[in-house]
Amino acid sequence: MSEDLEFLLKHKDPEVRIQALKDLQSRSEKPYIVSALITCLGDENWRVRKTAIEMLLDMRGENIIEQLINTLYQENANARNSSIEALIELGPEATDYLIKEFKHANTDVRKFIIDILGRTGELKAFPLLVEALEDSDENVKTAVVEHLSSMPKNISVINTLIAILKSENVWVAYHAAAALGRIGDVRAVDALVSELPRKELRKPVINALGKITEAGWISSVVPFLEDESKAVREEAVKALAEIVHGGISTEILVKNLKNTFGERASELLMPHTQSNFKEVSISAQLLIGLTMEKSILPSLLELSVEEEYSQSVIRVLTFMGKLAPESLLPFFKADHPYHRRVICEVAGKVKSDVFFKPLVGCLKDEDGHVRGKAAVALSYINKPEAIKYIKPLLLDEYENIQEETIKSLSKFGKNLNVDEIIKGLLDKSATLRKNSVKLLGLLGEQGSIEAVGVVLKDSDVRVRKAAVEALSSIGGPRAVKLLLHALTDETAEICRIAALKIGKLHAEEGVEPLIVLLRDRDVWIRTAAAEALGNIGNKKAVDPLIQMLSDESELVKTSVIEALGNFKEEKVKKALLQLLHDKDSEIRSTAVESLIFFDGIMEDIVPLLKDGEWIVRKKVVDVLGTFFKEKSYAYLKEVAETDNDPQVKDAAEGYLHV
After folding, report:
1. Which domains are present in the chain?
2. Is 169 left (phi over 0), alpha (psi -120 to 50) or beta?
3. d(CA 658, CA 625)
C-alpha cells in the first residue's frame, strides 16, 4: 500500500477516507485494492465500512471470500461484524468456504459461521448444522438450534429439532422448543405436548404451541392455567388467546375451559387482567369473554379500539352475542363512536332480531361509519321492513357510506321494488341517479336494461360511468349492444371502461369497434382496447395487435403483449420471441409470461436467467418453476445457488422445495 493512500485511509475526516476507497477503483493491482478494502472493514466510521463492503461485494470471488473469513479471527469487532455482513450478502457463494473453515475454526469463529449460515438459510449447510449440535461449546449449539428454524420448512429440520427437544440438555432443548414455535408446523405438536411434564420446559413448550395454529394442543395446555408457576400460567393464557387471534374455532377452547374448570374459569383468569404485561392482560380479557362473563364487556370494547386486537375482540363479542344477544344492547349507545361501530359489526354477524330496533336507530348516528355498519348489519338480519330505513342513506354525505348502502339494499333482492328504484334514475339529484343505477346493476334485473341504457346519455359523467358498470353486471345481448354505444362517449374514461367490460363479456360484436380503438389518440383507450381484444380471443384481432407492438407507449405495448398471449398462433409466438431482446425490462418480462402456453419455449427463455434485470430473471424463474419444474430443476438449482438478488434466489429455492 503506498504511503499516500495509507495516509488518506487514516485521515481524520471520514469523507476523505471514503473518497480514497473509491479512488482505488482506478487502480489495476487487485491484491493491493483488496488489502486496503479489508483493512477498512475495521474503520470506526460505519459509512467507510459500508463503502468497503459494497466494493468487496462488487469484486466477489474466491480470494475475497477467504480474506473475509480470515477477518472473522480479528479482535476488531467492527472488522468482524463487517465481514459477517459481507459473507451473509454473498450467500451461496460463500457457503462451501464457510463449511470448510468450520472444521478447524476456534469457538468464536465457529459461532460466527453458524450465525452466517443460519442467516442465509442454505440447505447445503444443513448437514453441518446437524453435526454442530454435538459441538463442545454451548453457545455454538444454541446458535445452531436458533438458526435451524430459519431453514426452509421441511421434515428433516423439524425432526432434528424434535430430537434436540427430547435431549437431556435443558438449555439446548429450550431453544429447540422456541425454534419449533417459530417454524409453526403442526407436525411438531405431539412432540411438544409430550414434553409438558418437564417443568423446566413448560414455558417454552407452551409458548411454541401457541404459535402453531392447530387445535390439537388445546386440551393439553388448558390445565396449566392453574399451574404452580406464575410464568407458566401466564404463558398458558397467552397461548390459548392465540386460538382467538388465529381464527381457530373458539368452541373447542370454550368446551375445554368448561370441562376442566367449570364456572371457575373466569375466576382463574381474572387476576391476569391486572398483569403488568400487556399481552397477558389482553389475552386474559379475551378468554374471560369466552366464559360469558358479562362484566368484561366494557373492557373488551375499550380493547377493540386498538387495531391489532379489534378482530379478536369482534370474534369474542360475536361468540357472546350469539349466546346472549341482550347483553350487547346497552352498547349501541356507547359514548365512543368506534365502540358503536364494533357493536354494529358484531350485530351483523350474530343476525339476531333483537338488534333490529337499535340498528335502525344507528342509521341516523352522527358517525358515518356507524351508519354504514348499521346498514350492513340490517341486510344480514334481512327483515324487509328495514329497506325503508336504509334507503335514505343513498344520499348520505359520504360516498363510502353510499356504497355500503347500495350493497346492503342489494341483499334484499326480490323484496326491493325495482320500479321505484328505476324512478330514482330520473331524480334531480345526480347522486341518487348514480346510486340507483349501481343498485340496479347489483340486482342484475334484465327488465331494467332499457332504463339503464337511457342513463348512458346522462349529463353527469359519474352517472354514465355507473350505467356502464351496471350494464356489464346485468349482461346479455341487449346490454352488450348498449355498451357498444358507450364506446363513442365523449369522455375517454367512459369509453375505456366500456371497452374493458365488452372484453370481459367476451362479446364478439365488439371486435371490429375495438380494433378501431387501437388507433385512438388516448393511451388508456388503446390499452383497454388491446386488453379487451385479448379477452375476446377472436383471431381477427391478431394482425392489428401485432402491428401495435410498435406503439410509442410502453403501457400500450405491455397490454398488447399480454393480449397476444391468448392467441396460440405461430406468428404470435414469433413476434413475442423477438421481444425477449427488447431494451425495456418490463417488455421482456411481459413477453416471457405471454409465451408460457406455446410449445418449446423453455429453451427460448432460459437464457434470460442471466438477464441484467432481476425482475426479468424472477419472471423466468416463476415460469420455469410453475410450468416446467421437472425439466428445469438444474436451472433453478443454479439460480438458487448463484443469483445475487434475494428475491430471485428465494423464488428459485421455493420451487425446488415445493
Report:
1. 417-486 (1.25.10.10), 497-567 (1.25.10.10), 568-658 (1.25.10.10)
2. beta
3. 10
Nearest CA to 345 out of 330, 328, 327 is that of 328
pLDDT at 161: 86
Q: Rounded to an integer, what distance in angstroms lies between the CA atom of residue 11 and that of residue 375?
A: 71
**pLDDT tens profile 396-405:** 999 999 999 9
CA distances from 630 to 266, 612, 635, 636, 650 (A): 56, 25, 10, 10, 18
Amino acid at 289: G
User: Is the per-residue pLDDT at 606 higher than 90?
Assistant: yes
Confirm if 164 and 172 have CB atoms less than 8 A apart.
yes
Asked whether 577 and 606 are in contact (CB, 8 A), the reply is: no
Q: Which stretches of 475-630 are DSSP H helices?
A: 477-486, 492-504, 511-517, 523-536, 542-547, 554-564, 570-578, 585-594, 602-605, 614-627
For the record, the C-alpha cell of 194 comes out as 409430550
What are the grid coordinates assigned to 176, written together? 429447540
| pLDDT for res 136 | 86
Q: What does the chain come to in residues?
A: 658
Helix (H, G, I), strand (E, B) or coil at 429: coil
Cβ(237)–Cβ(225) under 8 Å? Answer: yes
CA distance 604 to 369: 54
CA–CA dist 317, 61 (Å, integer): 60
C-alpha cell at 386: 328495514
Q: Please report how many Cα atoms fall inside a 13 Å half-sphere around the Cα of residue 263, on the Cβ side.
A: 0
Note if the pTM is more than 0.85. no
Give the single-character DSSP code of 12: S
Q: How many whole angstroms separate alpha carbon 44 and alpha carbon 13? A: 11
